[in-house]
Amino acid sequence: MTGPDASGVISNHPPAPGPVRVGELLRLHPGARVVPVPSGATQIFIGQRGTSLGALSPGLAAAVELLGTKPVDNDELLEVVRSHEGELGMLKTPKLLQRLRAGGWLAVTLEAAGKPLLTFRPLGPAVPPVLKHDGDPAELRMSRFAVLRAEGTGMVLESPLAHVAVELHDPALAGLLASLPARQDPGQAPQDTESARTHLPEQPEVVSALLSALARHGFLVPRSGAAEEDFRFAQWSPHELWFHSRTRVGRHDMPYGGTYWAKGTAEPLPAVRPSFEGVSVELPRVDLEALRASDRTLTEVLEDRHSLRLHDSSSPLTAAQLGEFLYRSARNRAQYDDGSQQLGDRPYPSGGRAYELEIYPLIDQVDGVAPGLYHYDPEGHRLELVAEPGPALTRLTEMSRATAQMSAAPQVTLLITARFGRVMWKYSTMGYALVLKHVGVLYQVMYSVATAMGLAGCGLGGGDSDAFAAASGVAWESESTVGEFLLGSRGEEDGSGVPA
């Protein structure tokens, strides 16, 4: 039995609980390694990033060791330092924690009533968030750049504009984020904000604290949308900003570069793609010594290069010209084996000598080669028939024509694919970015060769990968188009266009 209530009546009910306090638990980043060195200093690393903490006192060394084992609150940390150095040693702790926070070495978990709710995991040294918001938590919505996804056995909230990732420990938080009101346009009736609180109905102060913390890191923004309307952010679609941030270092803590992550779990793809069975067309080879003596200079080629979209249908490209173009641009010059995978050598550069790009000439009009979709065999210097003319090829041709704004079908569309496994088998995080760099350098080589040969060449900015998959029967997730280059005999320009 409890004491009397405000009216003096004896009550059997316990007193109403007070507000639930949101506290912090600290722990070293899960990927951090603490390494003592012979000089007496302590170094800390995450991947290849590292720093020296200097020579730590016994109490601070014990604190760092404790931070590496479990999440702890500030009081427990201070007690460890006090047990080694007394009260004066405790005065050193805030400076150490400040340094660990600033360097991105410390993960912070928010907890309430002894229950962990979410953890802010740093992705690098602390940087002020560009979309920081300190306003009313009731006026917030998810940033259009924020993504909630599965990671391991839990969920993680990320944004390319944030320098932390947020691990969700309570499933109710996913519902909380999903129930936040959407963007509110000017003049629109206010939306219900209470639904966001139904996921933690007995802890409104906890909800407000969590929303405020997420807003301070840029995951939540004002519902008006004004924060993201600045051109700095409006110019980016979410997937493009994600791609930019995750394929460079600095805004993620994932493995990066040539890690050979798939070695031992999957066989590397061969340097030369397996042949397509069926009809093939042998292409004439080029006398390179004669070209060395007679070819145009590099300066002439670079200065005369333009994107030319007008083809001469009365005198189309010939099989010999197509063969010379492909031989000079993309043939295999040699093969190597580095002990891990087969490597190649072609006229254009390729990161790690992966040479994952393949060329599929989609031929509409070439003297000496029947129309159809072919694969260029860079080893045998021949064309392998993939598909004969039909609706699927018409779809591809029309896509190229429309993209280039041509009045007639291009004589040849060189569909450039990537065998992704050639790159992804070795590289982590930045493999697809590397593929696109390779497409760019191949475009430049193709432009230069077309200009030197007096042909019309034009790189396209996009294409239909699903249409290629349907026409070729090649699995989209394993090999897909990543570039398109138009080639044909050079027509007469009317002089009204602008060089591209």
How would you concisely characterize the structure shown here?
The protein has helices at 58-67, 74-90, 93-102, 171-178, 204-216, 231-234, 238-246, 288-294, 298-304, 319-330, 391-404, 420-424, 431-453, 465-472, and strands spanning 22-28, 32-36, 42-46, 49-52, 106-112, 115-122, 140-142, 147-151, 154-158, 164-168, 220-222, 257-258, 280-282, 334-337, 342-345, 357-363, 372-377, 382-387, 412-419, 427-428, 455-460, 479-489.
Notes on the protein architecture:
- With 500 residues, the protein is an alpha+beta fold.
- The chain folds into 3 domains: 22-110, Outer Surface Protein A, domain 3, CATH 3.90.930.60; 114-184 and 193-254, no CATH class; 259-489, NADH Oxidase.
- The protein has 14 helices and 22 strands.
- The chain has helices spanning 58-67, 74-90, 93-102, 171-178, 204-216, 231-234, 238-246, 288-294, 298-304, 319-330, 391-404, 420-424, 431-453, 465-472; strands at residues 22-28, 32-36, 42-46, 49-52, 106-112, 115-122, 140-142, 147-151, 154-158, 164-168, 220-222, 257-258, 280-282, 334-337, 342-345, 357-363, 372-377, 382-387, 412-419, 427-428, 455-460, 479-489.
- A 7-stranded antiparallel sheet has the order 13-18-17-16-19-22-21, with helices on both faces. Strands 1-5-6-10-9-8 form a 6-stranded antiparallel sheet.
- Strand 8 (147-151) and strand 9 form a beta hairpin.
- Helix 1 packs antiparallel against helix 2 (74-90).
- The chain is elongated and about 90 Å long.
